[in-house]
Amino acid sequence: MRAVAIGLTPLSREEVVAVAREGAPVELTTEALKAVTTARAHVDALAASERPVYGVSTGFGALAVKYIPDERRAALQRSLVRSHAAGAGPEVEREVVRALTLLRLRTLTTGHTGVRPTTVRAMADLLNAGIAPVVHEYGSLGCSGDLAPLSSIALALTGEGEVRDGHGRLRPAAEALADAGLEPIELGEKEGLALINGTDGMLGMLVLALADLRRLLDTADLTAAMSVESLLGTDRVFAEDLQQLRPHPGQAESARRMRRFLAGSEIVASHRGPDCTRVQDAYSLRCAPQVHGAARDTMAHAETVADRELAAVVDNPVVLADGRVESNGNFHGAPLAYVLDFLAIAVADVASMAERRTDRLLDVARSHGLPPFLADDPGVDSGHMIAHYTQASVVAELKRLAVPASVDSIPTSAMQEDHVSMGWAAARKLRRAIDGLTTVLAVELLTAARALDLRAPLAPAPATAAALAELRRHVPGPGPDRHLAPELAEAGELIRSGTALRAAETCGEES
């Protein structure tokens, strides 16, 4: 796999995903190492002076007024990392730990943090060895950076704490480093602070969420089209000239995709004539592009924020080009926290609309000729009745996860840190929300596919038929009740992997 270069230019979102999720290696550029060396010379000069400099020769946070003599500064950095690696709760996912490590490494290589070249090499080696320090769920307030999570990374670099090796085994850090041929580092002035004072966990989870959400919103257009088709809805409301009357780009994109997915459908054509008495479809069908499109536009804003943050240098204090070391507030996670919360709202609403379409497919009074709950023998069989219960329970959870974390500041550090972003919490709940949306769309996919089968002999559109055929490779068609949980899992994996979506997009035609 091609290595991702870590240098003076920002990483792309795609590069972050490649390293975090796909295990791509990293390599440090010559320009980055030169910048690191130059910045370190400034820190060394300040360390040798008698003037107190925050992070170099003073304590931290509310203890910043205490001067630390030269012989105690290594202990200062070591104590900082040990005391701040105070996370609790379950381990966070490996891909999050790798993203966290990568993004901190990129900031360290900008030449604005004052760490030594040996330190950035050690962090790159940690990534390339596949070693993932154990990072816990709780411990970050999203201000002064993701302190506890990043401290777990720094602790592992010094040979302390626990890690997961390349095979996923839980091991002492010193043992895993030794087996990988790596030496623990001893932190110099400012290095402990530079390693832990960033928004990298929030940003990494945002980047991963955006990659997942783009696929899920594309899939939501597909499952919505399948529901429109199987409920004998119309595609006329998705016409381009109608969408142009309200020029939101996300709406136009979702409508275009739904037109393409429905093009050539015998089912839609069967009720398009003048004898059709239905005037308007329900909102969950007719307004799908408006809701999915609003989510797309929200995602576009979040992508802009993520790209800006990928270009940022987040540390406190920072080393400037003229050698000054200045305190600042760039570690505050508000820009990330807001969009993480905003995305959770969009996810909940897209899921809520999908649940309404599923409910309509199962209700004999509103499904236009389909059997109750799509059951094979209603009464004996329950069909997808309880699959909808599962979907509804997830939607309820998504609405709870949509409550903003970023409005809930708790003052800490003896009121020195009197306003925090809670961006890490916003990111953690967004990850759960994305898992939930995957399940919700899996239920709609299963249910709409079953309904399309029941519309035979009328044929669905080529695109929706391709998605249906892909699903039928893993899940049988209509029949007596079966154990549904494995089928929901199969549908979820088809959505998570993008397999069902690719099948439909390959066959889709623009109307």
From TrEMBL:
Its EC number is 4.3.1.3. It comes from the Bacteria. GO terms for molecular function: histidine ammonia-lyase activity. GO terms for biological process: L-histidine catabolic process to glutamate and formamide; L-histidine catabolic process to glutamate and formate. One of its GO terms (cellular component) is cytoplasm. NCBIfam families: hutH, PRK09367.1. This is Histidine ammonia-lyase.
